[in-house]
Amino acid sequence: MRFLSRSLPLTIAALLPVLTWPAAADPPDIAGQAGSDAYEIIGEQANESASGGTAGTAPASDGGSAGASGGEPKYSEFQWIVVCTTPSSANGGDAVELDCMAAQSCADARERRFRLWGLSIETGGWAPLESGCFGAAPDAPEPARPQVTEAMVLNEIRRIGLPVLEARTQPEDKTLVNFDTIFYTQAQPFSTTVTLLGQRVEILADPAEFTWHHGDGTTSTTATPGAPYPSKDITYRYGDADVTVLARVDVTYTARFRVGNGGWQNISETVTITGTETPLRVAEATGTLSGDYG
Length: 294
Description:
Helices cover 7% and strands 36% of the residues. It is mainly β. The protein has 2 domains: 12-134, no CATH class; 150-283, Immunoglobulins (Immunoglobulin-like, Sandwich). β10 and β11 form a beta hairpin. The longest helix is centred in the middle third of the chain and has 11 residues, at 150-160. The chain is rod-shaped.
C-alpha cells in the first residue's frame, strides 16, 4: 500500500476504516493522490489472472446458476461494468469513468478493467462476482432460469381448483325402487395459463375417473361420465323405498403442463374433486285401477 500525501491533520489511520471492497473481489493494491485538503483513495485491482480477455467475451463463470443448496439460481440479472462504478450508479445515468486509475490496471493499455455484477435473488442487491480486462464491456451472461417443477404445478392446480361436477339422474328428483335409475354428469377438459417463477405455464386437466355415490352407502366407479336417456351407460337400482338419498359424483383428473413453448409434461399424481350432493327421492310404485270395467 502506498500513498501520495502532504501533511494534514487527518491521519491515514482515521481514513482506513471507511475503505471497503466487495467481499468477492480480490485484495486490491492501493494507490493514492492528494488533492485540496483531503485524500482521494482509489482501489486498483491487480489480479493478473483476470487481466486477459477480448472485447465481447468474458472469463469462465458458472453464470450464477447454482444456489447455496446446489440447484436454485442465485442471480436474476448480470452486468459487466467498469470497476470504477457500480450497477446503481451506472443505471442512475452518471458518466462511466473508463479512465480512472483502477480501470487502467490492465497489461494492455488499450483495454480497461470491468467487473461482473449479479443481482441476488435472495437479497435483491448487486454482488460483485469477478473482473477482467477487455476492449469494451462484454455481453452479460444470461441468468439461469429457475426450474418449474411438477410439484409447483400440482400445488397451483390445487390452489386454483378444478371443476366440481353434479350428478344428474333420470328420472330427476324422484325415482322408483327396483328401477334402473340413470346416472350421468357433464364433464369437460379444463385448461388455464398461470405464471410460475416469472414463466408462462399452460395447464391441461382431463376427467379420467368418476366415482358415483348413490346416497345409500354404495358407490361405483366408471371411466366415462355417462349420458342421458335413451342411453343406459350408467344405472343403479335402489332397494329401499320411501327414503331421500343424497347422490353425488367425485371426479378424478389427470393433468399435464408445459413451460413457455416447451414440451408437455405429465403430472404423475391425480387430483380428485368432490362433487355436489343432489337430493333424490326413492318411492314405491302402487297400482291404481282406472276406467269403467262394468
